Each structure stands twice: as structure tokens, then as C-alpha cells.
Amino acid sequence: MTGYRRMAASLGVLFLLAACASTQSNMAPPPPERVNLTSLPQGASAAAQGENALTRAVLADINDYRAKKSLPPLAEDQALRRAAAVHSADMVTRGFLGHFNPDGQGPNERVKAVKPDFKGTVAENIGVTAISGTPDDTAAALMKLWIASPPHRQNMVGAAYTLAGVGAAEIDGKVFVTVVFAGS
Predict the structure, then answer these.
(1) Is the per-residue pLDDT at 87 higher than 60?
(2) Max alpha carbon distance in the chain (Å)?
(3) I need a surface site. Which of 48, 94, 99, 100 has the fewest CB within 10 A?
(4) Cα separation, 61 vs 43, whole angstroms
(5) Calpha distance 74→158 (Å, rounded)
């Protein structure tokens, strides 16, 4: 009887873990009736910052990491940078952290808003870290987080990706960073 109870309890834990995994695999909120594919959120769009020392350091670190894996560097794309910058500003101004904003707009929709004819693949890394020392130090802290995360690491070394855009937004000593990867 004890063996049977132990097996039943083990199966219950496995089903619970499987249920958690399946609900967490879909990180998107319930889809709204219609997701905006033609523009980015206005408030965040106005607040978005341009390229700066941190965004340059993040892209340089990603390209250094790719070089260690014998992969070519990612070319910076201004439209992807704009989509990334607006998403970082959106997370700060509306107080959320995720790949999908409260309106249901995700990485693909943001890229479509800035590059309507884009037909390739898109991936995105987001991260939040304390601003520490120089922009290079902050970029290194983000890289450490992304390298430790298999999905984020895979985005950085995806052979299909040839372009990237990096955006950042700061609040209360923290920085929200978004990297949009794209390829044909």
C-alpha cells in the first residue's frame, strides 16, 4: 500500500509540474480582439531613448559572444532599435516586464509596426538589472543573465539572425533592456 501511495503522489507531482510547464510556455496575455500592427504605443514612443553607450555595449557584448561561437556579428538595424527602445520605454512607463505589452503587442507586432514589409523571423531578449558602474559593467550584468538562460542564450547565437536592435530605459537605478533579433 505504501508503494502505491508513493507512486500516486509522484504521478500527482508530475502532472502538477506538467500543468505549470504548459501554462508558462505561453507567456502571452489573452489576445485582444485586434492587435495593433501599424504603430507602437504613443506614450512609450515619445519616451523612447536613442542609441547610447549602454545599447552599444550590449550589442558589442552579444557580437563578442557570437564570435566565440564562430558566428558572424549581428548588424545593427535602426528600425529594430526603434522597436526595442519603444518596448523598453513601454515597460517602464506602464510598469510591466514581458515580451507582450498590456495591449497584446509582442515582438512580431512591434517589428511589423516599424517594418511593415518584414517577412523574416524575430526573437527578443528582455532584461532588467541595476545600473552598476559603467555602461560596460551594466551590459556585462545583462549578458550574465542571458547566458544563464537557455532561451535567451539561443536567441543570441541563432544562426538565422543577422540583424539586431537594442533599446534601454532607466527608472529608479534600474535599466530595462530589449534586444530584437531578426533574420530573413
Answers:
(1) yes
(2) 66
(3) 94
(4) 30
(5) 10
Compute the C-alpha angle 114/142/133, nearest 5°.
115
Q: Which residues lie closer than 8 Å to 38 by C-beta, 6 or more apart? A: 112, 113, 116
Angle (nearest 5°) at CA 30 between 96 and 116: 80
**CA–CA dist 179, 111 (Å, integer):** 12
Buried b (16+ CB within 10 A) or exposed e, 24-57: eeeeeeeeeeeebeeebbeebeebbeebeebbeb
Q: What is the 3-state secondary structure (H, E, C) of the chain?
A: CHHHHHHHHHHHHHHHHHHHHHHHCCCCCCCCCCCCCCCCCHHHHHHCCCCCHHHHHHHHHHHHHHHHCCCCCCEECHHHHHHHHHHHHHHHHHCCCCCCCCCCCCHHHHHHHHCCCCCCEEEEEEEEEECCCCHHHHHHHHHHHHHCCHHHHHHHHCCCCCEEEEEEEEECCEEEEEEEEEEC
- Amino acid type, 145: L
Q: What is the pLDDT of residues 93-131, one digit of tens each?
A: 989 999 999 888 899 999 998 899 999 999 999 999 999
